[in-house]
Amino acid sequence: MAQHEHVRVAVIGSGFGGLGAAVRLRREGITDFLVLERAGSVGGTWRDNSYPGCACDVPSHLYSFSFAPNPDWPRTFSGQEHIRAYLEHVADTFGLRPHLRFDHEVTVMRWDNDRLYWVIESANGTTVTADVVVSATGPLSDPKLPDIPGLADFPGKVFHSAQWDHDHDLTGQRVAVIGTGASAIQIVPEIQPHVAALTLFQRTPPWVMPRMDRAISGAEKWLHRTLPFTGTARRGLLWGIRELQVGAFTKHPDQLGIVERIARANMARAVKDPELRARLTPSYRIGCKRILLSNAYYPALARPNVDVISSGLAEVRGSTLVASDGTETEADVIVLGTGFHVTDMPIADRVIGAEGITLAESWKDGMQALRGATAAGFPNWMTVIGPNTGLGNSSMILMIESQLNYMADYLRQLDVLGGRAALGARTSAVGAWNRRVQERMKRTVWNTGGCTSWYLDADGRNTTVWPGTTAEFRRATRTVDLGEYEVVRPPAPSADQKPVTEEAVR
């Protein structure tokens, strides 16, 4: 590749959001684009998270693109390897390979006010300029590592769930798992039968519902291949059920009591020890933190080689792990199930806007973006899975496709404007949108349920979740309202300055 390329659109990341954006660009007739990926293959979080037991907690037929149905999903809730294979298939089917640039970790994206384009530098020394940037790095892409005294001096092996060391055999080892989130509850049942001892450090117990998973029969696959509308109907049914559930999360959290009873029964079936059951029972309303799905987590915790410590890890002294309540345990391996940088995404430090400040500085009082996509002061830049676009009970692919509708209309509006132009989200429009979202958030279970979750930023603001249905979001992002944007044109050249020509910028 040449050391400097100019494209109409640069997409950052090749997970669901990035590949979806690439497909949509091609469907809009736009082929002048690149997808910059820091790793050596597509897949995003489904490439990086390859830990034992990694699987999706959204049904397969809903956790896939509407424009790329897969009649051959092996299970109702598919595993990481099948989801990653699906994304590779999307890249091949839609002819995305020529647009992909692997091993291009973006180090800085800088807006050029004079030329009205983004200058994108990668760690490999290449530079790309682009009229529009679509940032699809995703909120679950950068592992969060805890700052625990002594952890750096631990003599054994330490790795994050998203950076699993497959070369290290855990058989017969004393393993400590830190955290009880979505990754940890999948890892624990997988490694428990093989390790000598497993210690789970639990700060807050999760609510765990039964996982209604099964193999999809050959007859079902044949039906979906032969009569594609049946797959569409299945997807529609899964979507509709989840849309009906939204009101309980966003307006009437008291209605979630029946769901709590199901979760308690799920625990009681597997955990007979009342003392352990008490430690595993949450004190907050179900749904406040992410609801987890597993049939194997509780049975694994009840095994004799597992110990649950109801306190976070406070200090590491050699191979001795000390909990906040003073409990000590010995370990050979530490697995960090400590989540990701969601409300403080590192990519925000690498985006420099029209006023010379980073996106992280612009968001110092909390992430906010107009319709979850564009930020004031950052013309022709948009994000996929941006602030307040997350979901608590349905498929993020639905939200991604809505944002791709918005992206497509954004590019159409730029075409209509003609010449060299950019669209900059008005500060007033971003503020008005964010105020509406935060006002609706006040009633939700995520804000009233009595917990602290990764949905909240350091100041307790919920800048992550969408407080409505996916249908509402689809309507809100169907088209771009130019009244919410300023049209930016190149500055007029001075008398002694030659005008910037199209050839000069390309």
From TrEMBL:
Signal peptide boundaries: none
Key words, A-Z: FAD, Flavoprotein, Oxidoreductase
Family membership: Belongs to the FAD-binding monooxygenase family.
Organism: Streptomyces clavifer
Protein name as annotated: Cation diffusion facilitator CzcD-associated flavoprotein CzcO
Keyword Ribosomal protein part of the UniProt annotation: no
A Pfam entry, by short name: FMO-like
